[in-house]
Structure formats: C-alpha cells, structure tokens
Design goal:
about 625 residues, mainly alpha, Rossmann fold, 32 helices, globular
Length: about 625
C-alpha cells in the first residue's frame, strides 16, 4: 500500500520547478516575495512544497553559523473549526520567531514584543463584541464578559460601603478567572487605534527580522481544502505580513478553489471576475503551476511504485531497487529527448530485471491509458489509489483462493475505473450469460487488435479511443473465466448484471432512493417492504452513484436508508465505505455510523488511519474513551 501523503523523494520529476522556486527565494535578497503553487486536487502540490523546503534547508546550517532562513509550515485546514484562521497564522509566526530568538539568544525582547502585539490584536477581536454587549446592556459570555459586567456595575456606584465592597470583590474574582494572556495584554495597549496597532506590528516584525539577519519563509499548504471563511481569513492574515522585507510566502492551493472562496466571501455583492483576479494577483506575485504528468512521467512513476512494492515483498533486492530507482530518475530528467522505453526500464533494473518483468510490463502498457483517460488524467493521487485498490483486491483474491493473475486484475480494474457504466454492464451481462464465465464478444475485438485491423465496437457503449486502446492491452481476456475478477468489482456487479430485473414497485422505490439526500423513515418503510434481494440491487446503484459523486454526505445517506431497511446489507456497504478518502470522513457522519453495528470495524480502521481528518479521529477516540 502507498500512503496518500506528500513524497520525500522526487518520483515525479518536479525537481526543476522546486529548484526554480527555491532560487527565486534565495535570489530575492531582502525583497519580499510571494509564490503561488497552483494545481488541481492530487496533482502533487504538497510534494512540490516539500521539495522547495528541502532545497532551502540544504547547506543553510554550517558549523558555528546560524541559518539565513527561518522556515515554518502552516496548514490552515488543521485549525478549521477550532481557531480563527487569521489569528492562528499570526500566532504561529510569533511563536516561531520567539523560539528562534530564544535558541539564538539574540533579541528575545524584540521577539517577545512582537508576540505581545499579536496578542493585542487577538484581544481587540475578543473585546469588541464584549464591549458591544455591555453598551446595550446585554450579557456577554465567558470570564471576560463577567469582568466587564463587574466593572460596569462598580462604575455605576453603590449607595453604601458594603455594596461597593461586594462590587470590588466581584471585579477581583472575575479578573482572576482571566487567562494569563488576557491579564498580560489588558494593561499593555500601546496604540490608540487599530490601524496604528497594525502599523506597529508590521514595523516590529520587520525590525526583528533585520536584527536577526534572517529571511522568514512560510509554507502555506492545503488552503484549498478549507471552507471559504478559513481560506480568506488565512489570506487576510498573510496580507498583514506581506511585502515586509525579508519575508517569503509560498502558498499551495488550487487557484480555481481560491477564486471560488473569494466569490463566496463577497456573496451578495456584485463582484466582477476582474476584481476576483485582482484580489488574487495582489497576494501572489509569482504564480507557478504543478507540471502535468505525461506518459514518460507516469510510466516512471508506476515502475518505481511497483518495484518498490516488489522490494517490500522480498522479490527484489533492496540494492537492485535503490540502483534501479536512481537510474529511472536519471532517465526521467532526460525523457524530453528520447522518452522512456521498456528496454530502458529493463536496463535500469539489471541484473534482476526478470524478477520484476511483470511490474515493468504493467507500467509500460498502463501509462498511456492513465494519462489519456479523463477519469485519471495522470493525477498522482488517483494513480496511487488505483494501485492501492489493486493490491487490496489481489490480497482478497489470494485469501479466497481465486485463480487470478495480476495483469488480468489490472486490465479489468482499469476498465471498471475508466469505462462508462453502460459499457461495464455490457461486459458483466456477457460474462453472466456464459456458462463458463467468458466474454466471447472480446474474441473479435482482441483478434482485430492483434492484427492491427480497424476497431469495431461490439456495442454502442464501447465507442471511443479508450476502448480501442484497452483491447490492445495484454493479456487477452477472451478465454479467461472472468467471474472471479468481476466478483471483486463494483460490489459484485456480476450479480447485478445477471439478476437486475426490478419489479415495478421496486423501480419506484429505486427512484425515491436515488433522489433522497437524508435519512427518511418513510423511505426506509418502503425499502423494508421490498425483499432483501431487491434492496441489495438498489444499494449497488446507490454505491455506484456515491462513487461518482466523490462520497458526499448526501450520497452516503442514500446508502444508509437501504441498510436501515435491511441491516444485513451493512456487510455489503461497509467495504465500499473503506474507499472514502480521509478528507471526506465527515465528523457529521460519524454519529450515524457509530450507531450501526456493521460499521464498527470501519470506524476502527478510520481511527487508526493517519489520513482521516483530525477532527474525526478525535471524535472517534473520545467516544471510545467515554465507554
């Protein structure tokens, strides 16, 4: 299995772009610079950020000398829902500068002064609503509200000494409940207005960097995962620190997502597209895009991932894997000139190339389809997920003693991932109707492909370049019993194809199920009235739609209506829910799954998985601890 996290080794040939970004920062001198790294979901933005960071870290610390850079990472997504993103970034910067000044034993007082000014801004944001409450005579929550209420009562005066003493005691008690931070800053407001406070903060910030003789480089990642309020809050906080000498910000985000956040931020205001562009361009001085992977890059990526797995399983020596990886990465740097052929891959893994011949075959044949297919389009994250799913199915097949070859499994899984639903059902119905589980119609198209004859679609749904390329892939499937492979695909869609004849009543309930966006007692009653077989087939369609919809909460609700009607179908739904990516494991969904016995193993897996959203993991752990 391969973790869906940023890579520490450049397997995607991003090194040149990373070097360019690092050199822009190095060559800027004292001039502030802001670099935006844009790319779609899973394109490799986080990996590129890590590579830039590694470039700046190389050779910066020499014996007896301080580094010319202070490097820090900030992930706004981790703070979402817990702390104001604007304040979180400012606090993270001040904490890092205090830490660095303390370590260097230089200008600690200036770093502390900057940290206090950051707290003053936070204090101003806290005090403003409390003051508003006091002004209109309403009650503000929290210890700060209690303090203002007590002071207000004391200032109104009391008719006798005893009540004045009680009022003073109330103020003292309220003050004692304030956090040390608020106690510290209450008496330290230095500027008379917010603009002057911000000006003072920026001046102190610039002065501290100059005294320390460093450049602060902030890496901001996962901004496009955030809700619009969090994304804009983080950008607004950066604006306070931008264009200060000796600063560099490197922001990784999908540019279209950020533009959407800007529009959402100005919702209700007639904002032109040009103004959205202007807002973004004022923040980002130098835009860089993550390079899209071509066939050579994907071929090398597949070869490196699969041979790494072979080494982990003991089929390839670690020495051969390491030298092969180095050789492939060298080929990748020059792939623009001559490409990467199968012969060059063999040469890279000599003298053990025979041990990974199957893996190199798969990489060589699969790369063009993974690049040209619109469903994958060379996306590194989708490629990893494709391979992870492949490994899971291979493991299941081995445990069930299924006679499957890896290359056969690859070919069918690729078809399942990239073909249309109609084309896949045409295949499964052909297999289901054959007593030996063979798709006899493949004989004509695979034979024509071998003879380089014109491709003739066996069915209208098989029209298009993908199908024409797919039939050329090895191995031939004409003479293969495909029932074992299809048993692992799309939640046993072989059964769906053979027996998917719903009654008129079941078809009506199917329509209601597919339109549902929440749990419905009425719909559950209707599903309960149907037989479990009918509901199983309805659930298969709901799962398929959930996959196409990237597992949104509404999609999962449709499936839960089916399992609430027939709880035994939870065993059919649970394996599909394992596919949900970590960022989609919504905390709002967890209470619903927690109450369903069939989901216990699934939730345990999510709790243990580092990819699961931190908020969701904390919820699961808390529920376990409370038992």
């Amino acid at each position: 299995m391969w973790h869906d996290i940023e890579a520490e080794v450049d397997l995607l040939n991003f090194g040149l772009v990373a070097n360019a970004a690092a050199n822009l920062i190095k060559d800027a001198g004292d001039t502030p610079v802001t670099i935006g790294i844009s790319g779609g979901w899973g394109a490799g933005k986080s990996t590129l950020v890590k590579l830039v960071q590694a470039q700046l870290e190389q050779g910066t610390k020499k014996e007896g000398k301080n580094s010319p850079y202070i490097l820090m990472e900030f992930n706004a997504w981790l703070y979402q829902g817990y702390e104001d993103a604007r304040q979180a970034l400012l606090q993270a910067v001040s904490d890092r500068l205090v830490e660095e000044a303390t370590e260097r034993k230089s200008f600690v007082d200036k770093a502390t002064d900057f940290a206090k000014r950051v707290k003053l801004l936070k204090f101003g944001r806290i005090v403003a609503p409390v003051v508003a409450h006091v002004a209109v005579g309403t009650v503000a929550a929290g210890p700060l509200g209690t303090l203002f209420g007590a002071v207000s009562g004391l200032m109104q005066g009391f008719s006798d000494e005893e009540k004045r003493a009680e009022g003073l005691k109330a103020v003292q008690e309220a003050y004692s409940e304030l956090s040390p931070e608020l106690k510290e800053v209450i008496g330290e407001k230095k500027e008379a207005s917010l603009p002057k406070e911000i000006e003072g903060l920026r001046k102190t910030f610039a002065d501290l960097l100059e005294k320390l003789d460093v450049r602060l480089v902030v890496f901001v990642d996962d901004l496009d995962r955030c809700l619009p309020t969090t994304a804009i809050g983080t950008l607004e906080a950066m604006r306070l620190l931008l264009h200060v000498k000796r600063t560099a910000f490197l922001i990784a985000a999908d540019e279209s997502m950020i533009r959407g956040a800007v529009r959402a931020h100005f919702k209700g205001v007639d904002i032109e597209e040009g103004l959205v562009t202007s807002y973004f361009d004022k923040l980002i001085q130098i835009p860089l895009r993550v390079p899209r992977l071509g066939i050579n890059e994907v071929k090398a990526y597949l070869a490196l991932l699969l041979t790494e797995l072979a080494a982990r399983k003991g089929r390839l020596s670690s020495q051969a894997q390491a030298s092969g990886q180095a050789a492939v990465l060298e080929l990748l740097k020059k792939s623009w000139a001559k490409g990467i052929s199968r012969e060059l891959l063999d040469e890279a893994f000599k003298p053990e190339k025979a041990l990974v011949a199957k893996e190199l075959d798969i990489a060589d044949q699969l790369a063009p389809l993974l690049v040209t297919s619109a469903e994958i389009a060379g996306n590194p994250r989708l490629i990893k997920r494709f391979l992870n799913n492949l490994m899971i199915r291979q493991t299941i097949a081995e445990e069930m003693d299924m006679p499957l070859a890896l290359e056969e499994l690859v070919k069918i899984q690729l078809f399942e991932r990239c073909a249309s639903s109609a084309a896949f059902e045409f295949l499964t119905k052909a297999v289901a109707s054959d007593p030996d589980g063979k798709a006899e119609f493949l004989d004509a198209v695979e034979t024509a492909a071998q003879k380089a004859e014109q491709y003739v679609p066996p069915h209208a749904s098989w029209t298009g370049p993908f199908y024409e390329q797919w039939v050329k892939l090895a191995p031939r499937l004409t003479d293969k019993d495909l029932r074992p492979i299809l048993h692992l695909s799309r939640d046993r869609s072989l059964g769906l194809a053979a027996y998917d004849e719903l009654s008129a009543e079941a078809k009506k309930v199917l329509e209601a199920t597919m339109e549902a966006t929440e749990l419905s007692k009425i719909l559950v009653q209707q599903l309960t009235a149907l037989g479990e077989g009918d509901v199983s087939r309805i659930l298969n369609r709901a799962i398929r739609k959930a996959r196409e919809g990237q597992w949104e909460v509404d999609d999962i609700m449709r499936c839960l209506n089916c399992t609430d009607a027939h709880p035994a179908l939870g065993l059919q739904l649970a394996p599909a829910l394992f596919e949900i990516p970590g960022s989609k494991r919504n905390v709002a969904l967890l209470p619903l799954l927690k109450s369903r016995i069939w989901a216990s193993d699934l939730l345990q897996e999510w709790e243990d998985d580092p990819e699961t959203d931190e908020k969701s993991r904390r919820y699961l752990q808390k529920k376990k601890d409370s038992k």
